[in-house]
Description:
Elements: H1 11-24, H2 30-37, H3 47-59, H4 66-83, H5 102-110, H6 115-125, H7 135-141, H8 143-153, H9 159-167, H10 180-184, H11 190-196, H12 202-218, H13 220-230, H14 235-244, H15 246-250, H16 254-259, E1 268-275, E2 279-281, E3 285-294, E4 300-311, E5 317-329, E6 333-342, E7 354-362, E8 365-375
Parallel strand pairs: 2-8
Antiparallel strand pairs: 1-3, 3-6, 4-5, 4-7, 7-8
Helix pairs in contact: 1-4, 3-5, 4-6, 5-6, 7-8, 8-9, 9-12, 12-13, 12-14
Amino acid sequence: xxxxxxxxxxxxxxxxxxxxxxxxxxxxxxxxxxxxxxxxxxxxxxxxxxxxxxxxxxxxxxxxxxxxxxxxxxxxxxxxxxxxxxxxxxxxxxxxxxxxxxxxxxxxxxxxxxxxxxxxxxxxxxxxxxxxxxxxxxxxxxxxxxxxxxxxxxxxxxxxxxxxxxxxxxxxxxxxxxxxxxxxxxxxxxxxxxxxxxxxxxxxxxxxxxxxxxxxxxxxxxxxxxxxxxxxxxxxxxxxxxxxxxxxxxxxxxxxxxxxxxxxxxxxxxxxxxxxxxxxxxxxxxxxxxxxxxxxxxxxxxxxxxxxxxxxxxxxxxxxxxxxxxxxxxxxxxxxxxxxxxxxxxxxxxxxxxxxxxxxxxxxxxxxxxxxxxxx
Length: 376
């Protein structure tokens, strides 16, 4: 079994971190610090809880005055950068140190009433460890000022600051608090995304696409208009709008389907659908196959998907869509499709035994549902 991610806070990390703390804090007591960190609840904490806990304990060893404490944190970051004290886990997408995310959390916890000092600190800290979570309470408390700041950050020379200007204002950022006002009215986000849509950094462009996808869940018409506006402007914007439209595509939104060239399914059919495993044990896989027929006299661009209707605890079924392919199928062609869908136990989905269903979806149009059973 893979090592739990929360264990990035291990002995090696703390040895390096405390070595850095000794450099910036006079009379730093390593034993006291570590004993307060590794308390009776430590083993039961997840990674987010552990980070917040470290931030809380760190406060006990920093100056009481908030501005002075922030100055020490910035000094600490500079020292770690210079000496490379234990920066082992870097996010492969962003190249930022993940262990030290709690330094941004410190600003969120203790600096919400000191806007100027905190925002300046977040700008520095996010270049070392991303602060898309810690900026969110500031957006909620200071919506106008903070969104103006995010717009300024969208033109920052450092890619990580530009990225947080988008990632931090995503209305539905996973693992962090939602931004209800931006879910309701995302228009303050759009100028930021306009500035970033051709950013030289792939990480920034990914964030723009994810922000679009968040907005689409509550305001699809806004994103559809933006997709039409950006389409064909550049290779970057074409990738962004496609990735940012993924939820709308999975929903079979007809406007988005048309924009990306997935048109009528006239004379396109499925035949000989067969489930090879009508009873699937948890830990095994659903296996099914069918033939895709394009009976048109010209090739057709087809987005081919399937839906799994999962049994929920309350007995109802909940649909999740998976993509098979997205390509042109030749005229008068018959294509054999074979698929497997794993029911291996994972942390992000709890399986419930009983009736499930599978369906085929072509260009957003769903065909007949077929039953299968999930068993112990």
